[in-house]
Amino acid sequence: MSAVDYLLHLADNALVLGQRNAEWCGHGPVLEEDIALANVSLDLIGQARLLYQLVAGRQGGGATEDKLAYFRDTQEFRNYTLLELPHHGPLSGYAKAGLDYATTIVRNFLYSALMALLWEALEKSADADLAAIAAKSLKEVRYHLRHSRDWLVRLGDGTDESHARTQAALDHLLPYTQEFWAGSPAESAAIAADIGVDPNTLKSDWDTIVDAALAEATLQRPPLGGYVPEGKQGIHSEHLGYLLAEMQSLARAHPNGAW
Amino acid sequence: MTTALKEWPLWEVFIRSKQGLEHKHCGSLHAADAAQALDMARDVYTRRQEGVSIWVVESKAITASNPDDKGELFDPAADKIYRHPTFYEIPDEVGHM
């Protein structure tokens, strides 16, 4: 494991969540939200591109951002499992069973709260290229946090229906955040090289952000426990394969195509 | 908890561009309240770097003149060209004005 794997982890997080959120494009609950969420997706895909370009440059041997995004398979992706889950609860059938906005918002909130802290810490990375990407991404993710937190409070402290759906989404998704703190060989290598940040140094700040928002939203923090996902080590849920199949199909049907 | 709205009110959006001094009306959107209208205006109307500042105002707060009154309101100004400062000779030293 090397620091390049850490960059891939950051890039895959951004790409997979960007692709997931893009599923709302044209299906948003209102026009304004449709555009807002597409903006979030484009920010994330922009972050992924910068990181993949950095990785490709360092790997050499003909690596490109497109090859990294479109020609790696499920087990080579290093994103958190949380980010590949579909926009609905665990027992809703197949991935397109229904798009639940509460699930979308809770996930974006939990991830943005982490990234607002992580990108800020990575601004001081010994890797100057990564520090520059962190500075750009920090501004973007602060808005993502503002957007998702605002909706979290509105939905949680909203109608009985919106409260129940947001609480259900939180109960479903919060256990997946245990992966944030679990550590991985790639993170250890990056921390040792002073390139990456130990996520456990961010945990108490993350808890503060999450608990304050949940209190405002009148939501109960569910207990943790159970399986700790290992997406960042390439062990994914069944959902990532479908997401990649849709995202990669065009590039794989027309290899070396340019558009 | 407040009463749930069946429909969101309409808001008018004003954006000040980097070069401009004034906020210009650029469109409208639906939002639940002022804070949300501001965020949505950012997402809908400033995606191409149009602005550095946003105002939103609920559309119903605007009192507009009646188009039917156009004649009595605006036509009387039509023949008073002396109100335009176009009859002054500008000295060359002033340059472009």
- The helix content of chain B is 10-25%
| SSE-based structural type of chain A | mainly alpha
What's the CATH topology label of chain A? Ferritin
Q: Helices and strands of chain B, in N-to-C order? A: EEHEH
Please count the helical segments of chain A: 9
Q: How many distinct beta strands of chain B?
A: 3
Which shape of chain B, going by the Cα principal axes?
flat
Q: What structural class should be given to the helix and strand makeup of chain B?
A: alpha+beta
Strand content of chain A: under 5%
Task: Report the oligomer.
Answer: heterodimer
Summarize the helix and strand pattern of chain A as letters: HHHHHHHHH
Give the name of the CATH architecture of chain A. Up-down Bundle
Strand residue content of chain B: 15-25%
Helix content of chain A: 55-70%
Strand line-up of the largest beta sheet of chain B: 2-1-3
EC number (chain B): 1.14.13.149
Keywords (chain B): Oxidoreductase
Protein name (chain B): 1,2-phenylacetyl-CoA epoxidase subunit B
InterPro entries (chain B): PaaB (IPR009359), PaaB_sf (IPR038693)
Report on this model:
The complex is a heterodimer of chains A (259) and B (97). Chain A has 259 residues and is mainly α. Chain A has a single domain, classed as Ferritin (Up-down Bundle). Chain A has 9 helices and no strands. Chain A has helices spanning 3-22, 31-59, 65-70, 101-122, 128-156, 160-173, 185-192, 203-216, 239-253. Chain A starts with a helix and ends in a 6-residue tail after the last helix. With 97 residues, chain B is of the alpha+beta class. Chain B has a single domain (10-94), classed as Roll (Ubiquitin-like (UB roll)). Chain B contains 2 helices and 3 strands. Chain B has a 3-stranded antiparallel β-sheet, with helices on one face. In chain B, strand 1 and strand 2 (24-30) form a beta hairpin. The model of chain B has no long low-confidence stretch (mean pLDDT 90). The chains are: A mainly alpha (259), B alpha+beta (97). Chain B: Pfam families: PaaB. Chain B: GO terms for molecular function: phenylacetyl-CoA 1,2-epoxidase activity. Chain B: Keywords: Oxidoreductase.
